[in-house]
Amino acid sequence: MFVPKTDEVSLEDLIKSVDIGEYKIPQFQREYVWNIDKVVYLIDSLLKGFPIGSLILWETREELPEVKAVGGKDIENNNNRIYTSYVIDGQQRLTSLYFALKGLITETKPKVDCSQICVSLIVKNTDKLVLKKMPEDGNTNDYILLKELFTDAMPWVQENIEKRSIHLSKVIDYHNILAKYLVPTTKVKEGSLNLEQIIQVFERINLGGKKLNLYSIVSAYNYVPGKFDLDKHFAELNANKLINYGEISDTTFLQTISACLIHKCNKPAILEGLTQENKKVELRSQYAKIEQALLRAIDHLKGNNYGVRIRANLPYEALLVTFTYFYYKLKPNYPTELQTKLLCDYFWRAILTNSYVTATDSTLNADLDKIDSILNNEQPEYEPFAFTHSNVIAHGKSKSSAFSKGIICLMCTKTPKSFACGQEVIIDNTANSSSSKKQDHHFFPKKSKVITQNKEYKNKVNNIVNIVLIDALTNDAINNKNPSQYIPEFKSKTENFDKVLRSHFIELEGYGLEEDNFDLFLEARSKAIFKELVDKLVLTKNDKIEEL
């Protein structure tokens, strides 16, 4: 078992190690974010002899392809050692110490000016010793710049030996504290832990800071200055190309790349595969094709077989990985009619069986094999499943569940229309769309009399079967009315209102609308939704599906 060993490094050696490029900040670390007040507090603690925390370094002969500049300042590598020490924990403190003790100004935004940090020689040790800058009305003989105190205090001593002899002992004491202060430093040496374990170390000790995910390390390994920046591609994808759909996570982004290039989506396989030199080259050469496949997958899922108009309604983001893989591998460019049916079947089976509730990585790996079958115009092998219309109500209790999101998508496939004007309810992420305001509302309003007067109904009112996709105009007109009140009003004003209702899986007759029969409504609408779901499937002989 690996047991880390902690040594103590002097401040002088610490700063020297940064200066010669021995200590480096890996690309996956977050940016320097401290302000001048935190820097001053750190130095104040140090001069009072308080512990300021330890550093954890990964000492390796391996040169990561890109490192972050320390505080935005590029430091020339004059390190003649065969090892480099990457900062795994303590970057903010190390950077602050470096700029404060050398009296420098960071190149970060906003800049942190450490050049004027000074130490008071007239306060007690229990008071605040360190200041951002000398007070305007202060006597220059009562303060000393930190950078002078750290590098060499003797010129100040010689200059002030006649003037302020009372301060000389303090200057010497503070200088000695800085000269003798030792920082606990743990070095994880090459061979003790592999890269994946180093990532785990980083994640465990940075619970309050940046969570280092797999994407961060892969992005760092694949960075080529001036040629390829995965972070930049990802940011542009979300900011510009997915603006109407919604942002995807960096996990999904990385898994789509990994699925296409190594046919695996689990963490160890990605770490091993996408940091190898041949795969790094392939990623750069194939990135444009992978991104195009991703955009085609999104367009495919927006279609009327699926109705995933916006990212927020996608039941499982992992499905974007498998559909991207399909389009990346597809030859020729367009799916056959059979492939289209089999993809639709695959999508809705995933929703109805909750296949991505647990073990997402292993499920994804297995599903890539299913997509290979579909690419070969063959139906994948599935575990048989049973489903009835009562399952629609049973699984739809929570509006936020993956199943309920799937039903929202199913509603979108019918192109739902406004009760008030009969026009299509637009669902995307643009500011002028219906979805810029919440568009999922209760058909039987929560505060309608039929609901408030029945305790049993209060537990059912949020069921997905009682949710309709309508515009704000319709919702305002419904308010808290019972259906028997508002339906006749819309019927008298909206042309072809029966067709408008059908776009929501609702009929004028047989749904209990006139008598405000909530139970009958749930029963009838769940059957209509169930029938539409079954029509999306390519059933096998082992599937047990209720016949209506």
Describe this structure in words.
It is a single chain. By secondary structure, this protein is an alpha/beta fold. It has 23 helices and 13 strands. The strands form 4 sheets. A 6-stranded mixed β-sheet has the order 1-9-3-5-2-4. Helix 2 crosses helix 3. The chain is elongated.
Please give a quick description of this structure.
With 548 residues, this protein is of the alpha/beta class. The chain has helices at residues 11-19, 36-47, 91-102, 146-151, 154-160, 165-180, 195-205, 214-221, 230-241, 250-262, 267-273, 277-302, 318-329, 337-352, 360-375, 389-395, 402-413, 449-452, 455-458, 472-478, 483-493, 497-502, 518-535, and strands at 6-10, 23-26, 55-60, 67-68, 84-89, 118-120, 130-131, 143-145, 182-189, 386-387, 440-442, 467-469, 544-545.
Topology:
Layout: E1 6-10, H1 11-19, E2 23-26, H2 36-47, E3 55-60, E4 67-68, E5 84-89, H3 91-102, E6 118-120, E7 130-131, E8 143-145, H4 146-151, H5 154-160, H6 165-180, E9 182-189, H7 195-205, H8 214-221, H9 230-241, H10 250-262, H11 267-273, H12 277-302, H13 318-329, H14 337-352, H15 360-375, E10 386-387, H16 389-395, H17 402-413, E11 440-442, H18 449-452, H19 455-458, E12 467-469, H20 472-478, H21 483-493, H22 497-502, H23 518-535, E13 544-545
Parallel strand pairs: 2-5, 3-9, 10-13
Antiparallel strand pairs: 1-9, 2-4, 3-5, 6-7, 6-8, 11-12
